[in-house]
Amino acid sequence: MIETLQSIVQKVNRARNLDNVLSIIVHEVRKAMEVDVASVYLTDFERKQHVLMLTEGLDVKDMDAIRLDEGEGLIGLVARRAEPVNLDEAQNHPRYKLFKGIGAEELHAFLGVPIIYQRDVLGVLVVQCCRESAFSEGDVAFMVTLAAQLAGAIAHAEARGQGNSIQKIKSATTELFIKGVPGAPGVGIGTAMVLAQEADISLVPDRQVDDIDEEVFRYQDALAQVVKEIDDMKEALGEQLDEESRVLFDAYALLVNSDSIVENVIGKIRQGNWAEGGLRDVIQGTVQKFADMDDPYLRERADDIQDIGQRILQKLVDKDKKERKYPRRTVLVGENISATDLAEAPTKNIVAVVSTRGSSSSHAAILARGMGIPTVMGAEDLDLSESDGLEFIVDGYLGRIYIESSASVRQEYSRLAQEDTQLSRELNSLRKLPAQTPDGTTIPLYVNTGLMADITPSKKSGAEGVGLYRTEFPFMIRDRFPGEEEQRHIYRQTLKAFIPRPVTLRTLDIGGDKALPYFPIEEENPFLGWRGIRVTLDHRDIFLTQIRAMLRAASGLDNLNILLPMISDLGELEEAIFLIDQVFAEMQDDGEEVSWPKIGAMIEVPSAVYQAEEMAQRVDFLSIGTNDLTQYLLAVDRNNSRVAKLYDSLHPAVLRAIHQVVEAGHKYGRPVGVCGEIAGDPAAAILLLGMGVDNLSMTVAGLPRIKWVIRSFSQRDARIMLTRALQFTSAAAIREYLNSALEGAGLGGLLRAGK
Ligand code: PEP
Ligand code: MG
Question: Is 98 domain-assigned?
Fold first, then answer.
């Protein structure tokens, strides 16, 4: 059974559009279950109907005629209950509805299972038989398992909107878009460039090429590299290989160079596709052929062919990465765009970013916000293999992507994008004005940074300092740990640029989703693992070097704050302060000009919230990292698009935690700032103002927006709104309440595209 299931799921996953998906399902299910009829109904959410999409075994001339209203008939019953319905005699059931003239009169046994994707019943999969006996428990289990596995493929195919069948469940006027989660506000229109992340042959996109000979050469070159690699491997193993293994090795080498594969790939390239696309088609086709063979030995060769395809692809990708040209207006698209991908791209060409994984608090999204690049994360339904070179409209407010959209949508978004630019220009005029509420409370607004390129825009934005300098960014874009002098130079530039305003350098915060290419940390559960201060206290050399570089960088400037990330225990805080003291004393002993920095602890782990008072007594300031605090309090991975809907820093539990930390800090006279992304969220800023937070640190792009909020709401009103907001029981209700207050105050332009 498991093999049948796997084989059906594999076939469906390889299907190119919804038409193919449906016909594979119906055909394969009928065959596997040995039933008279197999059908699939999909939900037309707009018209609230169940629509027969495809059937095998019924004599349906006009498929369009078979539509059931919501809840109607047995299909409606399955969908409404969201549970299987298994009947020996369907016709006796009060909900049974007979469609005449299609051969349904002969059918008795009925089994319908719902196809559920992310809580929505997308449709119903049905099998029917002429016999009068219910289906077995095994049959039901098979269908339920199959439907669960197919749901994703159906949802993705629907979202892509290709194939004829889609028109039956989506009205012609619906403008299809792919849904993700908002990553960075703004609208970007440009040409999609799909970044090859890892060489995964099933994700290779199609791409037209002009210079076919050059493309053939690229393929042959990659092939030659793989052949040589295998020869070298064989040589290196030399004597260790016994006769049998030698034969296997030779067979493998023969496969790599097999005429049928090589010639077919070249044939595909000659038809105009690039080498990667040609290779994908041929390898997938060959793998399938071998996988379908009866001989077990030959069947196993399918894995070898897949492996060979991967190897050749890797060579092509490595070369391609080095040589890629970015279109003038590039929408950077990828499966899992990382902060490093963004940092490496030519920023002047990037108008938007789309990642099929991740969420708004992934570091790539944070970086994109810092750079002011509209971003959509977690766009799971996007088909990367067919996106390259297409025109994308990216709405970073709503988390939507329109692909090759109609002229009217394009026009509308061009207008909104212009209005956005105009609003940004107007907000820039607030630059020189203080972040002061109408009733006279001033809240310093700082920037979050980590890139050299940010220094000038940060200064220009009117920021009153740097509230969070993520030192891991300069570490990430290098291919080795930067030395002490190199670090000193980087930090000094920022410290100097902002003098006399404060600059908060956070010690290295790697682990989780921030990897250094030269210091890999492989863990099952990285966010609960070796992260932040845990790594640097275990590697004192890294910590001490960094602290020395920071203190030296601040020599004579006196505007350095040091911030310690991921503190979950007082011992860690004490140890880190002890080490800072040690470096300080050594420098003094050596006669260096050094001054004691202000030291702060990040409150981003629930344990630190509960020990905030004890922490406050040991440091000069507290800084709340709401990105991690939200993920740990709500148990929602900040990078997982599947649970992205649950990740909201306006959750009442998170707000209460922030409030508690502010009060704990103030009890001991310590300023409390917020440097997580919530500080740049216009709605949340009102509440933070009401809580009496002492400073907010955010991305450069967000700063003028928050200044507008602060200048529009009095602290008195903000306090009243905080009391009101804390009475709501969900993040959604709180957000709705705050958004309507923003709209009411004429600040709606901060929440959506346009003014
Ligand atoms: C946070 O967790 O809120 C934070 C500011 O740190 P980072 O996003 O770098 O983990
Ligand atoms: Mg953090």
Answer: yes
Q: Are residues 503 and 549 in the same domain?
A: yes
Q: Does residue 179 sit within a domain?
A: no
Q: Is 483 exposed, middle or buried (0-12, 13-18, 19+ CB in 10 A)?
A: exposed
CATH of the domain at 473: 3.20.20.60
Q: Is the CB of 638 under 6 A from ligand 1?
A: no
Token pair 């097999």 in the structure block, residue: 258
Whether 558 and 491 map to the same domain: the answer is: yes
Helix locations, 510-569, DSSP H: 533-538, 540-553
Indicate whether 569 and 660 sit together in one domain. yes
Encode burial over 702-729: b for 16+ CB neighbours within 10 A, e otherwise: bbbbbbbbbebbebebbbebbeebbebe
Nearest CA owner, ligand 1 atom 3: 625
Among candidate residues 397, 423, 449, the one where a domain is terminated: 423
567 alpha carbon, closest ligand: 2
How large is the average pLDDT for residues 674-703?
Answer: 95
- List, in sequence order, the alpha helices (H) in 436-524: 455-460, 472-476, 484-498
Q: Is 513 in the pocket of ligand 1 (CB under 6 A)?
A: no
Q: Is 651 a catalytic residue?
A: no
Residues 497 and 569 in one domain: yes
Backbone phi, then psi, for 69, in 5-degree steps? -70, 165
3-state DSSP of 502-521? CEEEECCCCECCECECCECC
Q: Are strands 120-129 and 109-117 parallel, antiparallel or unpaired?
A: antiparallel
Closest by CA to 85, choosing from 57, 53, 119, 121, is: 121
**Domain housing 236:** 201-322
Residue 176, domain member (yes or no)? no
Please tell me the predicted confidence (pLDDT) of residue 648: 93
> Does 464 sit in the ligand 1 pocket, CB within 6 Å?
no
Q: What is the pLDDT of residue 179?
A: 86
pLDDT digits (tens, 9 = 90+) for 76-127: 999 999 999 999 999 999 999 988 888 889 999 999 999 998 788 999 999 9
**pLDDT tens digits along 414-442:** 998 888 888 888 888 888 899 999 999 99
Q: Which of 510, 604, 678 to mutate to test the pocket of ligand 1 (most atoms within 8 A of CB)?
A: 604
Domain co-membership, 53 together with 138: yes
* Strands annotated E in 384-476: 391-395, 400-403, 445-449, 466-470
